[in-house]
Specification:
Blueprint lengths: L17 H15 L6 H16 L4 H4 L5 H21 L10 H6 L2 H14 L3 H9 L1 H23 L11 H23 L12 H51 L1
Helix pairs in contact: 1-2, 2-4, 4-8, 4-10, 6-8, 6-9, 7-8, 9-10
Length: about 250
Amino acid sequence: MRAHDIQTSAWSRWQLAPEIIILVAFIAFQYFRNQNVSKSQRNYFLAGLASILAVVVTPVGARAMDYFSLHMIQHITLMMITGPLLVLGTPKSFDPKNKFFIYATHPVISWIAYAALMIGVHLPAPHNFIMEHPWTHTYLEVPLYIAIPYFFYFNLLDRKLEDRRISPAFAVISLFLMMVPETLTGFSIYVSHGSLYNDMYSITDQRRGGSLMWSGAMIIDTIWMAFAVYHWIKSEEKKSLIVDAEIAAEKNRT
């Protein structure tokens, strides 16, 4: 039974979404209270907040309950674009010591949580429940898609060349491994011969959403992997300079 309205154009409806706008405004307020923010960090952070609004108040968010492809665009944006941008916009001095944040950003825990969220909400039973109970999408799913990716990328996109939370090599490996569940999830949806979600969407729309996850995840992940590799190279260059300086100093002493 088709449960959602697809009679009107996908791009004909916008929404105010005050619950998300208030959250974004609160985050922005807290962020700009910090004076120790560079121009590039501010631009990254603002781009992250703008990406939230771009898939919530626009037709992408307003019709995400009606079109699986738009639902997937929203998920991909929040998980793979918003999270990394907010991390890149976070001041280097930001390093909370409370136990929740430490556990939430633990490389293994955050990887598992990210993968579980991404796979779990696209399984038929959880997805159908969310679609049949819109409040879970608004007050649970979307906030989780903002928070968990932030925790996941917090260590992986650390731009410091020294005193990093995890090694650059581990960051690259972690990002590469995440491509596996992302692409497999999208591919499995794409190749399905029947509706996975109780005929809520057309097969064409379902496959379109699967292909967006499958191909889109690979492209976006490659960008962040390149970013991590760049900082890995820079980190190794700095280590080499330090070693060269130590060797030169040793020679001068002798």
